[in-house]
Specification:
2 copies of one chain form a homodimer.
Chain A: E1 2-3, E2 6-7, E3 11-14, E4 21-22, E5 29-37, E6 46-58, E7 68-74, E8 76-81, E9 84-89, E10 92-96, E11 102-106, E12 112-119
Antiparallel strand pairs in A: 1-2, 4-5, 5-6, 6-12, 7-10, 7-12, 8-9, 8-11
């Protein structure tokens, strides 16, 4: 793949320069996301997103056919998976296998930030 | 996939609990790695690793058929890709496309830590 004759594409930028978008999905509250590395960057297999949840923010309680690979950067997270509930703080790693019902919620008073990687599925 | 009758497997642990292994590859200096999420965890597509480079540590200058999706957690990194050289600090995102010659080096005086995700390739 080429972009103006330059191969797509070594990328090295501060995450803060990547657009911060509101997550509009049903059941999502107080969540914004930066798609740090995506298909359009030339990524052949999976995408890296950075989520920011405000206090009381949460993702939908849902399941889907793809997995999540998560790393908590900042804040306090409540992770729910198939009825199990765990706390995760900065430096925690979370793996949600495909097809399990899961939710991420901000369990603290400051912004929660985590990376969440998914295989391309759309 | 099952492990003793329990579906593989929701995981939520501090990264520090995952084994820290020396990287023995030719050209690697002062690098250790934690395989945070891997095939054996049930991850169907890609693996999450956390690298720790001591001052003067570096990865091999090499290329391969798979991509790297990287997020810098701590420290100062020099990233080389096809002769281009960039600096990256905490909060930087780096994408190395497949088949480009690349290297990560600690450009600071403290430990450099970054996540590096790769599709399963072994």
């Amino acid at each position: 793949m080429q972009r103006r004759g330059i191969p797509l594409g070594f990328k090295c930028v501060p995450a803060s320069e990547v657009k911060l978008e509101k997550m509009e999905e049903t059941g999502a509250e107080g969540i914004r996301v930066r798609w740090l590395i995506k298909k359009e960057d030339g990524a052949p297999n999976f995408a890296m997103r950075l989520f920011e949840l405000q206090p009381n923010g949460r993702s939908p309680l849902h399941s889907h056919s793809w997995e999540h690979e998560v790393y908590i950067l900042k804040g306090n997270c409540k992770v729910v998976c198939e009825g199990q509930e765990k706390k995760a703080t900065a430096g925690y790693v979370v793996f949600i296998p495909p097809n399990l019902k899961h939710q991420f919620a901000n369990a603290g008073k400051s912004t929660l930030k985590f990376l969440c990687l998914v295989p391309h599925h759309r």
